[in-house]
Amino acid sequence: MRVTIIGSGYVGLVAGACLAETGNEVVCADVSAPKVARLRAGDIPIYEPGLAELVTRNQSEGRLSFTTDVGAAIEHGKVVFIAVGTPPGEDGSADLQHVLGVADLIGRHMNETKLVVTKSTVPVGTAEKVRTAVRARTDLPFFVASNPEFLKEGAAIDDFMKPDRVVLGVDSDEARELLGDLYAPFVRTGNPVLYMDIPSAELTKYAANAMLASRISFMNQMADLCERVGADITSVRRGIGSDRRIGQAFLFPGPGYGGSCFPKDVQALVRTAGEFGVVPDLLEAVEAVNARQKQVLLRKVVEELGPSLAGREVGVWGLAFKAETDDMRESPAIPLVEGLLAAGATVRVHDPKAMEVARGLFGERVSWMSDPYEACHGADALVIVTEWLVYRTPDFGRIRGAMRRPLIIDGRNLYDPARMVALGFEYRSIGRAAVGASPS
Ligand SMILES: NC(=O)c1ccc[n+]([C@@H]2O[C@H](COP(=O)([O-])OP(=O)(O)OC[C@H]3O[C@@H](n4cnc5c(N)ncnc54)[C@H](O)[C@@H]3O)[C@@H](O)[C@H]2O)c1
Fold this sequence. Notes:
By secondary structure, the protein is an alpha/beta fold. The chain is about 45% helix and about 15% strand. The chain has helices spanning about 10-20, 35-40, 50-60, 70-75, 95-110, 125-135, 155-160, 175-185, 200-230, 235-240, 260-275, 280-295, 295-305, 335-340, 355-360, 370-375, 395-400, 415-420; strands spanning about 1-5, 25-30, 65, 80, 115-120, 140-145, 165-170, 195, 315, 345-350, 365-370, 380-385, 405-410, 425-430.
């Protein structure tokens, strides 16, 4: 099938590469000329496991191409996906200017009957706005559909190739058939394609992210309580997760959720709820807990080293908002590093993949370490933000030997507290007792 994807970011690029892999002729368009130039040269602008191989192979075999000529790309596709960004506007609602700008362009370049699909995360009613914008520019018949994307950065290829489910909001047989054919190769093992009306599809995406964000905020609040009452969040997590009604997934406390989706999508859902007269108090609480949690690592550093960090050296392991991505959007590392710098600390950072992106945020205000152990050198504390595999079983002797004070503040509960005490560390984590003596 001839497929066009507009917007070649995380979602557009992964969708384009995966749809080319199943034999479609895919054209990916983006307004960013540097991004398109890099993609054409086989240089993938984001880190996503497996993506580079997929893009290179499909490009060299002629099923995948990249262009800045969005109009020509639109003319190519029988199915045109809109996968541009939907950043938060000033009031927190999703900013639809890119989506509707693309819809206008689709109308202008409508050269045959097409199916226009919103893949960007967009509020209820957006597909209708897209329909109106396209209709304003063409008399040719066309169809619209909503196909929200559920991929996780860091596991995006797997998620697209083997989705838990595919959600298709349709109001025509043509849309149902075209999208059914396109997704058939990805659901051969029986995972469901869920056809529904368009508003339900649009809302499903927000409901999924809001539910996941709620679980994280819930666990972070329980972790806070654990620390105060002398309970252990790991035991509590096991205790509730083994209840099949709750399940084990997504019950890990941490330094607060970040990334390009949860923060903006919860905010946008708050706006939608308010707009339609629903009091969004639960969602607001999820956000408030998260905002507080994003200060938790800085608070723990200050509790240990004092409010002024002048003359203190702090190592930071992990900058990306989660492992297996270089995405820094809304990462809890940002308030941590900014807070450390504002309090006068010298900061040494390491991340296996996100340092190039993070350099744009912190510049030369921090020291960039290509080796994690160098970040521990002379440090009064080592703070772990991201759960990269490479941090899971480090050489603790080397860490201990390099640090001025053997204090680890672990935002991901990577290590066993009893073991850390035995190794001579002062160890602080999330929702578990502080262990190892502080210097008097
Ligand atoms: N990143 C994720 O994990 C994820 C997962 C599911 C859904 N989503 C949703 O998918 C959408 C895209 O997210 P993303 O992370 O891929 O964003 P992104 O910022 O990585 O990519 C968006 C791309 O669109 C391009 N663009 C903007 N305006 C354009 C235009 N008028 N014409 C052509 N290209 C244009 C930008 O240059 C950019 O390359 C958002 O709505 C997001 O909420 C993201």
